[in-house]
Design a protein that fits this description.
The chain is of the alpha+beta class. Helices cover about 40% and strands about 15% of the residues. Strands 1-2-3-5-4 form a five-stranded antiparallel β-sheet, with helices on both faces.
Length: about 300
């Protein structure tokens, strides 16, 4: 999710602009119909381009590295993962007053995963655990020679301390501030990840999962892809799962107590950030993040 600061300056984006960008830089697709995807995420405006493609234009500066990162890494990751992921087909350049790189990818059919459809499914929970296990095992041969560049850095809970405590104070009338503070302190003081960094999705929540026929069909939106502590991807356990399916997920991943505590901290921090930024203007985000925060407090 974008922060309040990152949403302060955003370029105007509409179908006419998207059509001009596509027509000028990818003339083979000029004239294909553009259909706005709604609701889209907070980071991109997304159009379906014809029947087989999508166009994703960053809304704010915090998302501008995603097009090139996905173009570089997703083709390498895809053969090793048990669920489909986006297939990049082109990276567009700034033009016509639009200031940032943008992306064209293959369209992935599916509906956004819902708690109602999958939340109490141990089978779906295990399938997600298997996806994360495969992602964490992926290690391209050239990786040791690469530094942890800024675009692959995942950040830490400690970096979110000030903002999270401020959000706890702001939402004390909605959620249990004492319980949130206790959870946050436990997450910060839990032993850290002392093994080699692993690949993480970085934004692994319900909105970035697709389903077809009531079954998981794809994982999307790898803007947070990076190398670091796998605890950040445990957020899915609190955005999607019930206590029963969460137990199956944790067992399949074989998550230790310290990593689980950090995962609850990630769910709380990201949930509070989204809630304080968007809940007042977006009922869908309010509902989703309320569940995320509540479930993180349950554990």
């Amino acid at each position: 999710m974008a922060t309040e600061e990152s949403t302060s300056t955003r370029p105007a984006i509409d179908a006419a602009l998207a059509g001009r960008l596509v027509g000028a830089q990818f003339p083979q697709w000029a004239g294909l119909p553009l259909r706005l995807l709604s609701p889209a995420g907070s980071d991109h405006v997304i159009y379906r381009l014809g029947d087989e493609l999508s166009v994703r234009l960053p809304r704010h500066a915090g998302a501008i590295g995603q097009a090139r990162k996905e173009s570089e890494w997703l083709p390498r990751l895809a053969p090793h993962l048990p669920l489909p992921i986006p297939v990049p087909v082109g990276v567009g350049e700034p033009a016509f007053g639009y200031p940032w790189p943008w992306a064209v990818s293959r369209w992935l059919d599916g509906e956004v995963a819902t708690v109602e459809a999958l939340g109490d499914s141990p089978e779906a929970a295990v399938e997600l655990a298997e996806f994360l296990t495969a992602l964490q095992r992926f290690a391209p041969q050239d990786l040791p020679a690469r530094s942890l560049s800024e675009d692959l850095a995942t950040g830490s809970l400690a970096e979110r301390d000030s903002a999270t405590r401020a959000s706890i104070a702001r939402t004390g009338g909605v959620f249990d501030a004492t319980a949130m503070t206790r959870l946050w302190n436990e997450a910060l003081h839990a032993p850290g990840w002392h093994r080699l960094p692993v690949w993480v999705h970085g934004d692994f929540h319900t909105g970035n999962l697709l389903t077809v026929g009531g079954r998981l069909s794809a994982v999307i939106d790898f803007g947070g892809l990076g190398l670091g502590d796998p605890a950040c991807d445990l957020t899915i356990a609190f955005t999607l799962m019930s206590a029963r399916s969460r137990a199956a997920f944790r067992a399949a991943l074989d998550v230790d107590d310290a990593t689980w505590a950090r995962g609850r901290g990630w769910a709380l921090a990201t949930g509070l950030n989204a809630y304080t930024s968007y809940a007042a203007v977006n009922p869908r985000v309010a509902e989703q993040t309320t569940r995320q925060i509540t479930e993180a407090l349950i554990g």
